[in-house]
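User: Hello, can you help with two protein structures?

Assistant: Certainly.
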Amino acid sequence: MEIIKTFLIGICVGMANVIPGVSGGTMAVVFNIYDKFVNAITLNFKKIWQNKKFVFPLLTGMALGVLLFSKLITIIYTHFPLQTNWCFVGLIVGSIPIMFKLMIFGGTQEDSESPKTKLSVGKIISMVVCAIAGFALVSLFAYLQTKFDKNAVEQAVMPDVSVKLLVRIFSAGILGAVAMIIPGISGSLLMLVMGVYTIVISCIPALFNSSTFMHALILLLPNGVGVIIGLLCGAKLISWLFKIAPNQTYAVIFGLLCCSAFVLMKFNFTGVLSIVGAIAAFCAGVLIAFFGSRLDSSASKSNSSGNDKA
């Protein structure tokens, strides 16, 4: 059951990574797997094998989410942008109390049942500064997003292959993957800024067409290699930050989440039905985040109690 749940979470994270302006890292936080995810992504194959019941279902789900929903999610976002945005806002709002708790205690949810150390004035000030920095970072990316055409995906075409283009696609894969695992920062948006997103998003469905398969594969391979390198480097960095400054790292993520909710809020309602739909989508997102965190907390407690008995 746990493997299936991880696989489904992976699909959601993969779907989020397809949408410019939406962070896959945010979805990992929403489903309370973020710290487990960044600690599991490593070059230590022994450690990966030890976490195989988490790593393989998650990565498989992410890949499937990107492959199957690259076109579908674009259609959904095109026809129901308001409801989709408010569902994501609900997911983020529902996860903010969890992240606040993690920020205060500097640990995983089960560790935060009781404080390990008292918060000094200096630590509180540093946490506030880090949260503001996270908020400002997402604000900057939101500003950049307004500078680029969100509908460019509809005119996406596969350009001719060149060494310069392949290097740019590779570089965008690295930077996009690093951004991908930082909550609130959209890897897709970063690739859009670098002029690569529309190429990648058009190549994915082209893989399923025999006449365009090879062309699409040549363009996608550098991006895929770049994403793997970026994930490994980015996860190592985040994992290191969790070890040396857990409270401050969670504070940055808290700021990223809070600003992400504001950025995704859209108020261009067209009538009563659109308002009702947005409210329903928001409530659904909050409930998913709330019950998801409760399930994770219950599972963690049952696992720890089982280990104590053993």
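That covers the first. Now for the second protein you mentioned:
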Amino acid sequence: MDFKKTNAPTNTVTRDLVDFVKDTNNIYESVAIMGKRANQISAEMKDELKSKLEEFSSTTDNLEEMFENREQIEISRYYERLPKPTLIAAQEFEEGKIYFRNPAKEKENL
């Protein structure tokens, strides 16, 4: 999933709870699904940011180098401006882009 191309809002949006219940018929299950997806997105973002910032790491840190490294600051600012993982997960859930299943419900249906 490319979280950079998401159309999720960058700030808090009031949402209708009925939109979250339509697939699961349970608001708590929907929140758990979105929470797990938000954790996945957060881990992806963290890994990508860490790999980009490792390019700038050095064995010796000078005070001058810390202030001169504008590229590192720009990368950090870019990631700070991205939508939060919870907002991305909620947007994906509303659009039906999250695959989920409940094994307990599958056993009941058999």
